[in-house]
Amino acid sequence: MSVKNWLKERFPIDYNKFIEINENIFIKEPIPNHMKKWFYCTGATPLILLSLQIVTGILLTFYFVPSPEMAYESVRHITEDVRLGFWIRGLHRWGSSMMIITLLLHMTRVFFTRAYQKPRELNWIIGVVLFLLTLAFSFTGYSLTYNQLSYWATTVGTNMFKQVPFIGHWALVFLRGGEEVTANTLTRFFTIHVGLLPPLILLFVAVHIIILRIHGVSEPEGFEKGHYAFYPHHFYKIIIVTLFAPALGF
Amino acid sequence: MAQEEQKQSRRKFLFSLGIIGVIIIAVVTFARDMLLYLFPPKKEKKFHKYLVGKRGEIAVGKAKEIKIGKTPVYVVHLEKEYKVFSGICTHLGCIIRWEEDKGRFFCPCHKGIFDKTGKVIGGPPPRPLDQFRVEEEGDLVFMYVKNKTRGPWA
Fold first, then answer.
1. Are the Cβ atoms of A83 and B151 closer than 8 angstroms?
2. Which of A9, A21, A195, B118 has the maximum number of C-beta atoms within 10 A of its C-beta?
3. Is the pLDDT of residue B147 over 80?
4. How far is A125 from chain B, CA to nearest CA, in Å?
5. Does B35 lie at the interface with A, CB-CB under 8 angstroms?
6. Per mean pLDDT, which range of A176-180, A209-213, B16-20, B64-68 is the poorest?
7. Given this model, what pLDDT does residue B2 score?
8. Residue B153 and residue A62: Cβ atoms within 8 Å?
9. d(CA A213, CA B73)
10. CATH 2.102.10.10 for domain B47-146
11. Highest-confidence range of B34-38, B100-104, B144-148, by mean pLDDT?
12. Interchain contact B153–A (C-beta under 8 A)
């Protein structure tokens, strides 16, 4: 018995239909003509960078040790001793900066082409949440190297939470795991960075894309009406735009 | 007409071949790099080489004390070869001394005694003195000390 039949008997769904649905979602999606301009393709860039961050981030956790004595030393070990460690860490580090930059580009585009207007307000709000989540990623990730710069950035950053009315002090103690920046802070930030934020951001990205697909992308005035298929033109376009951004950064 | 179609399909074929080729190269390279990253290379043990004496400087059966950092090592000229012993007693880690008149090593802490080949001849030490690798190059005698690396990654 072939593997395909074995699978079909144990997971009995209509495979032709399954393939057709996926084709419609991933390959034949109609893209409006104005998306041929690169400025309208910046939304996929942070998504691809996010997957790059996930891969390199998982690889970094193989060597990183979140403790005050070992954090900086293990980062040094990754950059200086581990084979291609400098490369993995460099991708992760610069990828994070590029993610912020491309998100700002995307938000600028959405803002100035009024793509946030009804019925897409909810998607704009979710987009802002995604941006804040990315900032949280950057802040917690920055703290993990635990050198002088990141230690004091953590101190100053968490101090800002103290100014929030009513819950400020509570938020400070929660983030630092005490009154001061200690080993507790480092492990907390590590947990937030690798455990809490990734599922959250993936959830919001999924909702963001689902809402986008339900409404379709907004079509600004002044472009020829018409659509073309997602693959191959738009597919290559977003890859080119994505490669262009890191190429500038790296 | 038929020719045109053929032309187009060849172009398409070459195009997709190029794209798929590039994607395969990229994926394989990335996978290779990830594996290289995940599997640390086998490290050869590195040794530090010290000059400990010249041939003829030490008489047969005699020893010379040399400090490596704070701890002494002893270069002993045996009949056929040179040996270098650690100056740390194998019993509880005291510093031993060479007794020139008796031709032996003596540990003052618990009266451990070693002969000039490092063997225990008296007292509580459980094993002979630790030795270092020795090599003679021409007229010079060198010893090799293992390089200790920083951090827990050896």
1. no
2. B118
3. no
4. 36
5. no
6. B64-68
7. 52
8. no
9. 76
10. yes
11. B34-38
12. yes
Interface check for B38 against chain A (CB to CB < 8 A): the answer is yes
CA pair distance A127, A107, nearest whole angstrom: 8
Rounded Cα distance between A126 and A79, Å, is: 36
Structure tokens at B103: 């031709």
- Which amino acid is residue B47, in one-letter code? F
Q: Which chain B residues are Cβ-neighbours of A83 within 8 angstroms?
A: 36-37, 40-41
* Nearest CB to B34; choose among A59, A73, A77: A59
Domain boundaries, chain B: 1-39, 47-146
What was the ipTM of the complex prediction? 0.79
Contact A88 B41 (CB under 8 A): no
| Number of CB pairs, chain A paired with chain B, less than 8 A apart | 22
Contact B68, B145 (CB under 8 A): yes
Q: How far apart are CA A242 and CA A41, in angstroms?
A: 9
Q: Mean pLDDT, chain B, as a whole number?
A: 83
Q: Does B151 touch chain A (CB under 8 A)?
A: yes
HSE at residue A114, side-chain half, CA atoms within 13 A, is 5
**Are the C-beta atoms of residues B83 and B117 closer than 8 Å to each other?**
yes
Q: Which residues of A touch B (CB under 8 A)?
A: 59, 62, 73, 77, 81-85, 87-88
CA of A46, closest CA in chain B: separation in Å? 20
Ranges of chain A with pLDDT below 50? none
Task: Evaluate whether B115 touches B107 at the Cβ level (below 8 Å).
Answer: no
Residue of A73, A77, A83 lying closest to B37 (CB–CB) = A83
Report the top-level CATH class of A43-217+236-249.
mainly alpha
Q: Which two tokens stand for residue A187?
A: 């492990």
Q: Residue B96 burial by CB count (10 A; 0-12/13-18/19+): exposed, middle or buried?
A: buried
When CB atoms are compared, the residue of A62, A73, A87 closest to B38 is A62
